[in-house]
Amino acid sequence: MRYFVQKLGFYAVALWAALTLNFFIPRLMPGNPVDIMVSKLAAKGPVTEATRDAIAAMLGTDTEASLWQQYGDYVSAIVHGNLGTSVAYFPASVGQIIDQTLPWTVGLIGLSTVISFLIGVGLGTFAGWKRGSWVDNLIPFTTMLQSVPYFWLALLLLFCFGSIWQVFPLNGGYDVYTFPGVEASWGFTKSVLYHGALPALTIVISSIGGWMLGMRNMMVSTLSEDYILTAEAKGLRPARIRFAYAARNAVLPSISGFAISLGFVVAGSIVTEAVFSYPGIGSALLMAVNSNDYALMQGIFLVITLAVLGANLLVDLLYGFIDPRTRARS
After folding, report:
1. Domain ranges, ordered by start, for the chain
2. Range among 189-198, 205-214, 270-279 with highest mean pLDDT value
3. Using one digit for the tens of pLDDT, what is the confidence trace for 155-191?
4. Is CATH 1.10.3720.10 the classification given to domain 95-329?
5. How far apart are CA 160 and CA 321, in angstroms?
6. C-alpha Rg value of the chain to the nearest Å
7. Considering Cα of 186, then 95, then 314, then 207, what sign does the dihedral take?
8. What angle is formed at CA 318 by the lines to CA 303 and CA 129, rounded to 5 degrees?
9. Pairwise CA distance, residues 250 & 281, whole Å
């Protein structure tokens, strides 16, 4: 019980620190979202001082209030679920923007991360078990693909399979002639899968090498342990030794890395979404940074923070069941 209380306390402090940084970092950036909004309105007519004050209050950047008062208002708004109004997508609220973009990112990046993890760990297990096999010889090639600049790989695949052979579409998240509805749901789903195939393939190709190499090295290290030799001396089947003894212990570091990767899934991949013009949360974050949109940046960072901390907490608690030795030291 003490182990779980310590973990919860640690992550509660980490959440508070992340929320504090989430408030101060955007305000250290040059520029002011109020001035951006005023300039947009000024193009349509004169803007009074009262209008400017109303915009500042609406965006939560009231310059008359002290920084600590703004911080208190920020924490109070988060507690009440109010993330503010977006400047880049005005007059939409931050919550609406996140609700619209987050499912696209979770569907694309999340599914791609799970696929690359399962394939990489599976191939890494076999490569570590059968050293010198053809699977083991694939590792230098997959590692090379991981070291290739991500945007270059995305552009290369887009040029080959989207422009030359025209197997996949060049941009977007779905066909503009389809829409999510009761009658067109299957057509819309096929369109989403079709448009997301090439971005997903890019993510899988670029990340599978790391999972494969890490699992392979851990398998080699685990196979040299005494309990593996004992299992072989007892005459256990090779398949049982491979999975129940070797892979089960070798996969623990990969599970930690996988949890961190899942936490960052909600952050999206800005490069992927920019290259493929994908309507995910990474594109919204890029727009927020370019527009000095404090509210949207803080809302997206908050979602990312909660996802990362939640994923790490889940794995820490899961570790206590997978490997009881971690509980014993606490």
Report:
1. 2-79, 95-329
2. 205-214
3. 888 888 888 888 888 887 777 666 555 445 667 777 8
4. yes
5. 47
6. 24
7. positive
8. 110
9. 34
